[in-house]
Write a structure and sequence with these properties.
It catalyses: ATP + protein L-histidine = ADP + protein N-phospho-L-histidine. It is an enzyme of class 2 (transferase). The chain has about 450 residues and is of the alpha+beta class. The strands form 3 sheets. Strands 11-12-10-9-7-14 form a 6-stranded mixed sheet, with helices on one face. A 5-stranded antiparallel sheet has the order 2-1-5-4-3. Helix 2 runs parallel beside helix 3 and helix 10 runs antiparallel to helix 12. The termini are far apart. The relative contact order is 0.06. The structure holds adenosine-5'-diphosphate. Adenosine-5'-diphosphate (ADP) binds next to helix 10 and helix 12.
Length: about 450
């Protein structure tokens, strides 16, 4: 206990003793000791009740009266309570100021922020940017259901996915179709979700410009390359034997450039697509065609296997899937030394989908390179890729094609032992084969 309080407490006890002693003396003089003591005790109790009443009145009054001066226990109690109250008020003020500052930050954000109540899907609050980007108006839209209010954005279906809702990467703003938005749903508490919309118009435009540029450059290069290639083919090395190695190298390089341009054009075409054809892809003929390519590219240097263990077909684009699979096949041949084994496996997966895997016993890929291997022009060994006629775009094409089919690429590889590139398709992309073709061919 602080000394100040201790002293006040002692003083109050001494006062009580003094009052009772005084009353006893007066009572003795009047011959009524007990009566005098009782009256004094009642007086003390009454005084304390009055002090308690006074304290309660002060604590409950709205006006901030400073505590009375004095050094008795009641004044000390009053002072302590007053200090507690003042501290609490100051803390409340600080919290309110902080809350206002956070609100001001959220309100000033360039991204639209909308707080939505999870169960009722009603709008609780939104910032200024939500007005310009999403067309929400304060206070008209507070309390309104978010789905119909943000029409034509497909927000209701999105909310149905809950925590698994994927971000919507490029959608038109309900205010103006020229404004492109990226929408994200962030569950930040049990009951409240945050819908964040970012203006990505400039980014989308830049991305489009980049795509157009690559597509146009590739397209423009095609014609001169065809001409150069044509003339090179016409030159007869027999006429100038000393030029033969140079001619051969020029032909090789012009072929590589042609392939590079073709791959760039394929990538541009894939990037420009949001969805893919929904035709039935006959996997029996696809595997037969891959087998022919494998045989032709390998030219007897490898042991080849095609294992067709699922009597199913795929739904998607035959052309694009063929281009993806043949890239994997060509990689397997190019990165497997003679004497190795290459297997194409088509089989059902335990999840109900199917997978097409190309396995080889080739050089393999060091684990550190695996996360980046599907990036454009990313190569483990540039010289080996060039020697083998690679463009560095094969796996990027595979990844794009699979993405358009909502499929994923799984890569397993060990240096010196070989690699396995497996394309996993979900059950929605699988159809049973009409004329079942099942079995293993070696
Ligand atoms: P590239 O035209 O160079 O082959 P890709 O995009 O097809 O380009 O492949 C990227 C890189 O991945 C290759 O340069 C090679 O290093 C590695 N790679 C791809 N497939 C295989 C494979 N089957 N075995 C070993 N390495 C591979």
């Amino acid at each position: 206990m602080p000394p100040r309080i201790h002293a006040a407490w002692t003083r109050t006890l001494l006062q009580l003793v003094a009052v009772l002693a005084g009353a006893a003396v007066i009572g003795a003089l009047l011959g009524q000791v007990w009566m005098a003591l009782a009256i004094a005790a009642l007086g003390v109790v009454a005084w304390h009740y009055w002090k308690l009443w006074d304290l309660l009145r002060r604590l409950t009054s709205r006006s901030r009266v400073p505590p009375p001066q004095g050094d008795g226990v009641w004044q000390e109690t009053d002072r302590l309570l007053h200090r507690g109250q003042t501290d609490m008020r100051a803390r409340k003020r600080r919290l309110i100021a902080m809350l206002r500052a956070y609100r001001a930050v959220a309100a000033a954000l360039p991204d639209a922020v909308v707080v939505v109540e999870r169960n009722s899907q009603r709008i609780q609050w939104f910032n200024t940017a939500a007005t310009s980007l999403l067309g929400l108006r304060m206070p008209r839209d507070i309390g309104k259901p978010v789905g119909p209010t943000l029409q034509p954005l497909p927000v209701s279906q999105w909310f149905a996915h809950g925590r698994r809702a994927e971000p919507m990467l490029d959608v038109a703003s309900p205010v103006s179709s020229g404004t492109r938005l990226e929408l994200r749903l962030i569950p930040y508490s049990e009951d409240l979700w945050l819908l964040v919309a970012r203006d990505v118009t400039k980014l989308v435009r830049l991305e489009q410009m980049r795509r157009d540029f690559v597509a146009n450059v590739s397209h423009e290069l095609r014609t001169p390359l065809t001409v150069v290639h044509g003339y090179l083919d016409m030159l007869d090395p027999a006429e100038q034997p000393e030029w033969a190695p140079m001619l051969q190298e020029m032909q090789h390089q012009s072929q590589r450039m042609t392939q590079l341009v073709e791959d760039l054009l394929t990538l541009s075409r894939l990037e420009a697509q949001d969805s893919i054809g929904e035709e039935t892809v006959s996997m029996a003929s696809m595997l037969a065609s891959l087998r022919r390519e494998l045989t032709m590219l390998s030219q007897g240097r490898h042991t080849l296997d095609v294992d067709d263990a699922s009597a199913t077909d795929l739904v998607g684009s035959t052309r694009e899937l063929h281009s993806a699979f043949s890239n994997l096949v060509s990689n397997a041949v190019r990165y497997t030394p003679a004497g190795g084994r290459i297997t194409i496996r088509y089989a059902a997966t335990p999840e109900g989908g199917v997978m097409l895997a190309v396995e080889d016993t080739g050089y393999g890929i060091p684990a550190a390179h695996l996360p980046r291997i599907t990036e454009r022009f990313y190569r483990v060994s540039t010289s080996r890729s060039r020697e083998s006629g690679g463009t560095g775009l094969g796996l990027a094409i595979v990844k794009h094609v699979l993405h358009l089919h909502q499929a994923r690429l799984e890569i397993e590889s060990e240096v010196g032992r070989g690699s396995r590139f497996a394309c996993h398709f979900s059950a929605e992309r699988v159809r049973s084969r009409e004329a079942a073709y099942c079995g293993a061919t070696g």
